[in-house]
Amino acid sequence: QVQLVESGGGSVQAGGSLRLSCVTSGASGVTYSTRWMGWVRQAPGKEREGVATIGFLGTAVYAASVKGRFTISRDNVKNTLYLQMNSLKPEDTAMYYCAAGDRPWEYTYTGRGTQVTVSS
């Protein structure tokens, strides 16, 4: 069983930056369950959407809405996933969840989330 714990959320003004982290436990190193990891977000009243996903070798794919502003990365030794978010906009306000699975954008495990709030 893979557990994912997010941290790093908070409140910032538009144009600011935040760095989210997600520590994985229950799976040492890269396993079938963590071949692909990513971040998804859900704003109040909206459907959950994929933000970015990254394979175990570092191949990354971004949603059009965050491309050029967000950077996803992973440290397979530290079992940690990151999301560097720059030039934040009010529309980025959402609960951000860390997720893991064996295919891009298709996740088996999801964390409890960390709140990101961007004020204008």
Q: In this structure, how is the largest beta sheet organized?
A: 7 strands, mixed
Q: Give the helix level as a range of percent.
A: under 10%
Number of helices: 0
Structural class: mainly beta
Shape: globular
Instruction: Spell out the helices and strands N to C.
Output: EEEEEEEEEEE
Number of DSSP-assigned strands:
11
What can you see in these coordinates?
With 120 residues, the protein is mainly β. It is 0% helix and 52% strand. The protein contains no helices and eleven strands. Strands 2, 4, 5, 6, 9, 10 and 11 form a seven-stranded mixed sheet that branches. Strands 1-3-8-7 form a four-stranded antiparallel sheet, with no helix packed on it. A hairpin with a 7-residue loop joins strand 9 and strand 10. The model has no long low-confidence stretch (mean pLDDT 94).
Give a quick set of tags describing it.
mainly beta, 7-stranded mixed sheet, 120 residues, single chain, 4-stranded antiparallel sheet
What can be said about this structure in brief?
Helices cover 0% and strands 52% of the residues. With 120 residues, it is mainly β. The protein is globular and about 40 Å long.
Structural topology:
Elements: E1 3-7, E2 10-13, E3 18-25, E4 36-42, E5 49-55, E6 60-62, E7 70-75, E8 80-85, E9 94-101, E10 109-110, E11 114-119
